[in-house]
Fold:
Amino acid sequence: MELTLKVIRDTVFKQQPIDSTQIEDPNDKYEIDAGAELVLHSWANLAEEEGHLRVAFLENTFNGRNTWYAYIGHVEIWQDDTKIFPDPPPPPPPPVSILVKDVKACTTSVVKKLDRQIIEEMNQIIPNALVNFEDLNVLNGPAVWALLQPPAKAALQRAIQDRGLPMTINSAYRTIAQQLILYNHYRNRRCGIPVAAYPSRSNHQSGLAIDIQDYWSWRPYLERRGWRWLGPHDPVHFDYVGGGTRDIRSLAVLAFQRVWNKYNINNRIAEDGDYGPITNSKLNYSPIEGFGTSIRPDNGGDIPYRILRLSDPFMQGPDVSIVQKALADAGFNLIVDGLYGPGTQTAVKQFQSRKGLEVDGIVGPATRAQLGLSGNKQVGQSSFVSVDLISQTQEISPIQEQNFES
Structure:
């Protein structure tokens, strides 16, 4: 095995572990360029030598000496093809599946993946209950779902055409997941939110509300087309009060209940459109990346993986087979068939119990880690939805979510 010193920055070898400018004798220091690779006899990293390595060269001498000090920020030590100094960084922790209840970010954009599943289910129940208005002359904020009921979109389009300028929109349709995040912030006195409606009671969940910039200039154009200004206590907010609309707030609740039941067939809830304590609890314990989607690992890997759970229909694919194979290797009796059915769920629960994990039958990052599965396992299913873990450091300005009470 060969030890090599690699110089990664121009540096000075020294006979003392001090700054080279403090060394007066020119024979006690030697300049060397970045890129040099020198075979070592031995080396030591001693605390008393204040940020320097003591190195002894096997083949090279400088100013007639083979033992020198090198500043640790300018060199690396390699053993064959492996860097042994500085120590490589520790592996990143396994990625986490963030639940709605744990969101601390002051933006509702973090829950967009779950939002999308709820919105798609709404339009499955009632086609075109919400329509996209991004094709209008609008500029939307980062957390905006550009969705309105069709009559409200038509009226908005006419108002924008009347003025002939683009409209900047900071909030429009707000899902029950977004509203729950705001409500949780309000209850925990986060993000400066003075008041927030309980989910399903906000006007923004009707598909008939917008918050905009330059509201005073837009007010006459919007009011002429059936939009009502909420008033000086919430000046950025307008509600569409024209005809042809419906109350869809319970539809959003029903859509979430159906999504939950699809992926939690052993923990079903009533599909009644009523946002009660049980539905509130299940929404709080829903992953912000959505159900059945995949998470991209934090460790730089390119292969995403899904959170696996018992669902209807059963989740299936090579990723399920990988988990089943790992369980079988761990001594559990199950069929490796690529279907996440009751037998696989039972084996997962038994494994979780053995490892002291939460026994929920769901294969998330903690269970995968205990199974010895990294996020880089090839799942071989090109239809997976790749979902990057979302940073929770981004903030939005208060104007982007003004209508907390509505």
